[in-house]
Amino acid sequence: MKALVVGGWVRDKLLREAGYDVKSSDRDWVVVGATPQELLSLGFLPVGVDFPVFLHPQTKEEYALARTERKSGHGYKGFTFYSAPDVSLESDLIRRDLTINAIAMDEDGTLVDPYGGVKDIERKVLRHVSQAFLEDPVRLLRVARFQARLPDFKIDPGTMAMLQDMVKSGEVNALVSERVGMEFRKALKEKKPSLFFIVLEKTGFLKRLYPEWIFGSKTLNLIDHIQGLKIELKRFAASFLETRPEAVRKIVGSLRLPNEYMEMATMFSTAVHVAPIESDSAKNILSALKRYDGFRRVERFQTLLSILQEAGFIKNKNFWENVVKTMADLPMAEIVSDCTDKKELPLVIERARIKKLEELLKAR
Question: Which of 175, 177, 218, 236 has the maximal Cβ count within 10 Å?
């Protein structure tokens, strides 16, 4: 029985040694020449459902028995697995997606690299390991995400051809919406997320599954430019710079993302294409606050303002934040104290708000 570290941790170690600023992945181990019973006898805890995976009794790191896979259906779940002591390390590694992810390291630090992953790191190439790459459509999204993480790497022409074949064959149609959404969210946190969408465009993925989603140069530049807090949410909303609200609702709904993604993306697209926020009119500013719920959902509204400023659709985010604060600080009890007719209350409040907004506009 032999255990080796494999996959992301080894890849990231080698990338850092080559000068790349990447965070370390969790350590995952592959075990060669063992049975589940042997690991159980050593105190390992079973956690795998589809194939034998165990947690180390002390470190809690994952140890998976070496395995082979056989395509048995559509999509990334359409596989049957075989795991036994006679499965070699090379047989396990050949089923992995990219050569840079198919490098193992034994306990004394010696690398096992049967498919040229180390050389591909030196060459800055994202290259598939074997023809088995074609069998899992999630790999299209993963390669696109690695391109966004490593912008100066290039996708091997043969690998790009395989990605395009996945789209042409309809294999990508078997992707589960939740998994696509998860990969999109991960990609938006990468170093240059525009490259993720550029790869999806080149492969035909976007045109096949999301034809209404428009990625012109303005959108791609905006996505890369956005930084700071809630970067994933803001970049996602910004990806709809050139896409109209009705298409946004359709696309985001199909991805089955949390509600805040639908809200922010729809509001941003609406503010760009239908109901702009920027105005020199107190009445229009008040209408914008109401439309985008700037009175009750202050934090959400401020996030929207941040994206709009990055996109050039508001002149001064500080002015708008001052508007929000001033509206919240209005002495409502005092304003409505002299109003005896409850039906007149909304009008009294609106007049007070407009008066204060006019003062802010004069001082801007």
Answer: 236
d(CA 23, CA 12): 7
- Dihedrals phi, psi of 326, to nearest 5 degrees: -65, -40
The dihedral formed by the CA atoms of 274, 275, 276 and 280, expressed in degrees to the nearest 10: 140
Predicted confidence (pLDDT) per residue in 271-312, tens digit: 999 999 999 999 999 999 999 999 999 999 999 999 999 999
For 117-165, give the DSSP string.
HHHHHHHTEE-BSSGGGGG-THHHHHHHHHHHHSTT-EE-HHHHHHHHH
Q: Helix, strand, or coil here: 194?
A: helix
pLDDT at 218 over 50: yes
Q: What is the mean pLDDT of residues 204-219?
A: 96
Distance CA 307, CA 305 (A): 5
**The pLDDT of residue 78:** 47
Give the chain's length. Answer: 364
Q: Per the structure block, which two tokens stand in for 302?
A: 């401020």
* CATH 1.10.3090.10 domain span(s) along the chain: 137-256
pLDDT of 2 over the 80 cut: yes
Matching CATH number, 1-122, of 3.30.460.10, 3.90.380.10, 1.10.260.40, 3.40.50.720: 3.30.460.10
Check if the beta carbon of residue 236 is closer than 8 Å to that of residue 264: yes
The secondary structure of residue 64, as a DSSP letter, is E
Helix/strand/coil for 105: strand
d(CA 280, CA 234): 26
DSSP assignment, residue 96?
Answer: S
Neighbours of 281 (CB within 10 A): 13
Which of 219, 216, 238, 218 shows the shortest CA–CA distance to 227?
238
Pairing of strands 125-126, 154-155: parallel
This prediction has a pTM of 0.88
User: How many other C-beta atoms lie within 10 A of the C-beta of residue 199?
Assistant: 24
CATH superfamily of 137-256: cca-adding enzyme, domain 2 (1.10.3090.10)
- Distance, in Å, from the CA atom of 308 to the CA atom of 125, rounded to the nearest integer, reads 36
